[in-house]
Design goal:
The chain has 13 helices and 19 strands. It comes from Variovorax defluvii.
Length: about 500
């Protein structure tokens, strides 16, 4: 059987309450040091799958936003990573993966790259070198292919967290950023992995602003941008953007919950019904107007309130639902093509390759919406195989079939297959775990896809148990989000009423 050489996971958001891999009690209070039932079921099923594929331990690639460092305390993410290592990366003291883990930071764990930059600079000082600035990116491929005697930068923090786990004392986590490249022996097939944040315009806003300078006006996707340009211009912005959310008190918490609901769920049945019920109850308590009271022509108070909710919040949120109703918008596709034909193509050429002749696969995450496809891209003779890993979070209260998570399996010949793990349970069920390729005729000659599909069926009971846990986690988290929003809203309103009540007294004293 064709065994994987690499397994790629992304967007785990370990440490965050909204991650399905973080343990939380019935009230949604997280305990990052404990694995969630979903994490336990995933680790068990993955071990069975790799055992069924009968190969040496594959290399684990963690493709960004694995640690939720931007929104969660360092202690929480450290405890959550140690729990993940214990649950998924070892089996009774035996390692499930190869001793070297490759880590490609994203926007939520960009701080790991900042630490790696500092470490690289200090290592240079140890060799008597004083550089002008910090390293902006690592080599695309293994350093041996590009510079003799070099090695990737180790993450000392993550390596230390792994070292205390049985069987992993010799493990090492190495950082690649922002792109990690894999190249076959014939230098004809290539896989490039990137978390995906530099495809998203909001994380390269400084590059876009620079392109709008007088005389340039290059628009949303300016030409001739390298990965070094992206990081040097936007790295500090990525850190800043995720450095202080969640520290704005109860008012900020209420605003965040409102945003989470409104961006996708304001037009949902649950939201409209609950909000309308709350408004009707307040009318009854404050003014004695029962919900069944007829207003005019047979229309009751309850019906009138529900209509107002639908006509205002509901219709206003419909435009927000578009981002979840489709995997990629036309602008998203343009952004993806720009990143591949620009920064990625330039980096491939710098490594001495002819991009147009390559059989390229591109793997990214960030969007939390897994998919597989082929995409014609300028500068490449063949369509690029594109895979998205999705995400393990439930950060909005309604279910959408586009959201979910995948794991990528890559063999020695750099064939890629996607293990579709789950999508949000729509109509009360999660799609069963299954293998997917790009969806074109090239899937027929993909031995990794065939081997993965066979192994999934041979371990079906373990994956069915995982699906049940994933469905329970997403549904319970969605319900909690609605509860949290209404609870926060009541407290915010109460605080505002108190403030308004004391304002006249304050004015009189003034």
């Amino acid at each position: 059987m064709n065994a994987p050489r690499y397994v790629c996971l992304s967007d785990l958001h370990l440490g965050a309450a909204y991650s399905t891999l973080t343990y939380a009690d019935g009230q949604g209070r997280p305990d990052p040091g404990r694995p969630s039932p979903t994490q336990v079921a995933f680790g068990s099923a993955l071990r069975e799958l790799l055992s069924a594929m009968d190969g040496p331990p594959p290399t684990l690639i963690l493709l960004g936003d694995v640690l939720d460092m931007g929104l969660s305390p360092m202690g929480n993410v450290a405890a959550a990573f140690r729990s993940f290592v214990q649950t998924v990366m070892q089996d009774g003291g035996r390692p499930v993966f190869a001793p070297r883990v490759l880590y490609v930071p994203g926007n939520h764990d960009h701080h790991l790259w900042r630490i790696a930059q500092d470490q690289h600079y200090q290592d240079a000082l140890d060799h008597g070198l004083i550089g002008e600035d910090l390293l902006q990116h690592t080599a695309l491929f293994e350093p041996a292919l590009e510079e003799e005697g070099a090695s990737r930068i180790a993450s000392s923090m993550l390596t230390r967290l792994m070292a205390g786990v049985p069987g992993l004392s010799g493990a090492r986590v190495e950082i690649a950023y922002p792109n990690l490249g894999l190249l076959d022996a014939a230098r004809q097939r290539c896989v490039v992995l990137h978390h995906g944040h530099y495809i998203d315009p909001i994380y390269r806003v400084m590059t876009m602003l620079n392109a709008q300078a007088p005389g340039r006006n290059a628009g949303r996707n300016p030409p001739h941008v390298t990965v070094s340009d992206l990081e040097s211009q936007n790295g500090a912005w990525v850190d800043f953007m995720w450095s202080d959310l969640g520290s704005s008190g109860m008012t900020g918490a209420g605003a965040n919950k409102l945003y989470e609901v409104m961006r996708d769920a304001a037009a949902s049945h649950d939201f409209a019904e609950r909000l309308a019920t709350q408004l009707v109850n307040q009318l009854d308590q404050n003014f004695g107007m029962s919900g069944s009271m007829e207003v005019f022509h047979g229309v009751t108070v309850r019906q009138l309130v529900r209509g107002v909710v639908d006509a205002t919040l509901g219709q206003g949120a419909e435009s927000q639902r578009d981002s979840y109703a489709e995997v990629l918008s036309s602008e998203d596709v343009a952004d993806l093509r720009w990143y591949l034909s620009g920064p990625v193509r330039h980096e491939l050429a710098q490594a001495g390759l002819d991009p147009s002749a390559l059989d390229l696969r591109f793997i990214f995450g960030h969007s939390h919406k897994p998919f597989e496809d082929e995409l014609p891209v300028a500068g490449f003779d063949r369509p690029v195989g594109v895979f998205n890993t999705g995400g393990w979070v439930m950060d909005q209260p309604t279910m959408t079939s586009t959201q979910g998570a995948s794991a990528m399996f890559i063999d020695d010949a750099l064939n890629v297959a996607s293990l579709r793990l789950f999508n949000d349970p729509v109509n009360g069920r999660v799609p069963p775990v299954h293998a997917r390729g790009m969806g074109g005729f090239r899937d027929r000659d993909n031995p990794m896809l065939a081997a993965l599909a066979d192994a999934v069926e041979r371990t079906r009971p373990a994956w069915d148990a995982f699906s049940q846990r994933a469905q329970q986690a997403t549904e319970s988290r969605a319900a909690l989000l609605l509860d949290e929003f209404f609870t926060a809203s009541v407290e915010v309103v109460a605080n505002a009423r108190v403030a308004m009540a004391v304002m006249p007294a304050v004015r009189e004293q003034a």
